[in-house]
Amino acid sequence: MNRTYSVETYGCQMNVHDSERIAGILDEAGYIPVLDGKTADLVVFNTCAVRENADNKLYGNLSFLAPIKKLNPAMQIAVGGCLAQKDQATILKRAPYVDVVFGTHNVGSLPILLERARIEEESQIEILEALEHFPSTLPARRLSAFSSWVSVSVGCNNTCTFCIVPTLRGIEKDRNAKDILDEVRALVDQGVIEVTLLGQNVNAYGVDFGDRQAFANLLRECGTIDGLERVRFMSPHPRDFTDDVIEAMAETENVMPHLHMPLQSGSNSILASMRRSYRTDRYLGILERVRNAMPHASITTDIIVGFPGETENDFQATLDVCTQARFAAAYTYQYSIRPGTPAATMPNQISSEVVGERYTRLHNHQQLISLSVNQEAIGKNYKVLVGSHEGRRDVVQERLTGRSEDFRLVHFDNTSTARPGDEVEVRITDASAHYLIGAPDAIRRTRGGDAHEARNKEASKTSTMLGMPTLSK
Ligand code: SF4
Fold it and tell me: Which domain holds residue 390?
């Protein structure tokens, strides 16, 4: 009787992609995904360590499962990802009923560790300090039939003082370009029409083998792959963002006109103590060159509020850069102390009241900018790729939802023929700070839509579960 499993994912796109690999190796080991994780024989937590509440989430969910496991001792619980890599044996101390703790460098070992834990009736812990194999060599259960993550590197050589990632994921290791392009071609053969190239510091790709043009060349190579309609990348770092990347974006038709580039702070003194190794003039200079090369490009960012030592003037500087940059969207975070990072022991930690108050002001400030940027889209047409969550209907209005080429969320009147993965030409009729509203003009049925439909048919024939089985309480 095959054992069933579910995977609970926290954190960044890198983790979402790792969870696709975890599910892929469990499928290969004969496990069956289940919709309701509470009933699963195995629950895997793929954890994040970037922010404080990541810990609370994990230990909260573990204590939720404890009584369920008491009633079903054959149930297994495994904890992987960045928090496992950081906390290691502490996880077994706090939750001794956990069977396996594995790290970010040995995802592939999970099935063996689970077997060993069952046979030896003893918790197993295996944390490697360096990468064993690129996770991309492992099978994957992909969330979408037409849109996929492709990792180009793991780890990071930067030392941002608020970030624990380099400690947990190690220094940057780059995949060779042939493996990446072979993976992309194989995905396109399966019906994928959109790929997102992933790396902690994606545009540093090539540093591992001393080729500064490697990332720009990779984008150009993706431009030669027939059937690949949309290429995106996540997350670049301003320090390594060179003009040849901007040229490659502008010259390569299937590279989408969207740049998500973390700013983190608009104050040069805070950027210095964050050790972000660029200043606002360089950051804004990149945006200007991107907009000169691609006037229709949209730019989004990440900003941390309340970093130690941040004065009201520093905060004002952040608001000013947002005004100048006219981001389509900014993902804003309240600074939280991460034990083990240099910033955790810095003087002048800011009180949570002040951090919260600044967070609200930045949020409101950016809302107005996002609204005005989105309102400029009214009356224009956008090519929208219908989202994979069953064409994720806007619950209120039964509208379909998807992403435009410049990565904006677009809700549009339901057209019964558009499938997830198809492309719909949408005329924008209204806008909010977070999304655009429109009416469909033309529908282009794509290979991606065909792949989604075929996968659904196959799944219903074999009543196989699609997507990622999660715990969902
Ligand atoms: S670039 Fe900085 S914030 Fe990003 S993963 Fe590397 S160290 Fe962390």
Answer: 381-457
Structure confidence at residue 473 (pLDDT)? 47
pLDDT tens figures, 17-44 = 999 999 999 999 999 988 777 789 999 9
Residue 463 lies in a domain: no
Tens of pLDDT, residues 343-392: 999 999 999 999 999 999 999 999 999 999 999 999 999 999 998 754 44
Q: How far apart are CA 432 and CA 97, in angstroms?
A: 47
CB-ligand 1 contact for 263 (6 Å cutoff): no
Mutate to test the pocket of ligand 1, among 158, 171, 263 (most ligand atoms within 8 A of CB): 158
User: Do 156 and 273 sit in the same domain of this protein?
Assistant: no
**Contact assessment for residue 303 and residue 310, using Cβ atoms and an 8 Å cutoff:** no
Nearest to 243 by CA among 200, 287, 295: 287
Domain of 86, CATH number, reads 3.40.50.12160
pTM over 0.85: yes
How does pLDDT run across 222-269, given as a tens digit for each residue?
999 999 999 999 999 999 899 999 999 999 999 999 999 999 999 999
Q: Is residue 45 part of a domain?
A: yes
Instruction: Report the atom number in ligand 1 closest to the C-alpha of 156.
Output: 6
Q: Residue 128 C-alpha to ligand 1 middle, in angstroms? A: 20
Q: Is residue 243 helix, strand or coil?
A: helix
CA of 200 to the centre of ligand 1 (A): 6
Last residue of a domain, one of 132, 154, 186: 132
Q: Residue 176 maps to which CATH number? A: 3.30.750.210
Residue 359 in domain: yes
- CB of 163 within 6 A of ligand 1: the answer is yes
Please report, for the domain that includes residue 420, its CATH number. 2.40.50.140
C-alpha dihedral, 333 to 335 to 336 to 337, nearest 10° = 150
Confidence of residue 89 (pLDDT cuts 50, 70, 90): very high
Residue 198 CB–ligand 1 contact under 6 Å: no
Asked whether residue 469 is assigned to any structural domain, the reply reads no
| Same domain, residue pair 341 and 390 | no
Q: Is the CB of 201 under 6 A from ligand 1?
A: yes
Q: Verify whether ligand 1 is closer than 6 Å to residue 170 (CB atom).
A: no
Distances from the Cα of 285 to the Cα of 24, 119, 242, angstroms: 42, 59, 11
